[in-house]
Protein: Tryptophan synthase alpha chain
Amino acid sequence: MGKTKLSEAFAQVKKSGDKAFVPYIMAGDGGLSTLGERIKLLEQFGATAIELGIPFSDPVADGPTIQEAGIRALKENVSLSSILLELQKLKETYTIPIVIMTYLNPVFAYGIKSFAADCTQAGVSGIIIPDLPIEEEELVSAELEKHEIALIRLVSITSTEERKAKLANRSEGFLYAVTVAGITGARESYQKDIGEYLASLKAISKVPVLAGFGVATPEHVHQLGQYCDGVVVGSRIIDLFQEKNIEKIQELIQSAKSTQVLG
Ligand SMILES: O=P(O)(O)OC[C@@H](O)[C@@H](O)c1c[nH]c2ccccc12
Structure:
């Protein structure tokens, strides 16, 4: 079910001639009670899917903005189980696919079987586990497979060709192309050969290729969108929610549409 929901969302984007836009938000940032509102707002603004972060005490790839959002969320005392319960309560109120981004540790603490089952109950379509290396995927893949939850793989600019090919071949839902060698966070510009990198992934990937890390402006969305199927935007979306600059969130999401409305 989950996997199909994601692929249908991407097929719809392609049909419209748009680029996919996947905003990242941290569950529990602003309190768990704001989660439903935020999901519905992002859906209404035209996001393709939502990447929902689970706050974790020892994040690896998170830059300062995401880390601070995680600290705020942990102060609200949210946990993987309270987040999944909240999603389960909310799931009839939106149709946009939800992708959970969590480190491996909380999944293990939860138990992979219950995790996959509860994700299904919560209507979750896909999972991103950035600290799960391809060699260790068997730890979770069978359970996710059973529940038809997409395991989205991350490929990095420093991955070897062989690894890129493996990841592109295995990824489900979409392939997350990390565009920088470093941590998350809004950036001014990209390295020169970013287009080649994305195009080479697109040439070998069975699923849509989305560029993420540092995407912060409509110009970035256009620049990267030339070479791949869309973008993931985290830090900038979190900053804009903090500033209550809802209009700018809409403008950024709309910049991925072929009929863009730039403010
Ligand atoms: O914040 P940025 O630079 O826009 O990048 C997206 C990123 O935050 C989000 O996808 C994410 C948050 N934490 C992660 C950890 C690993 C990989 C990806 C992520």
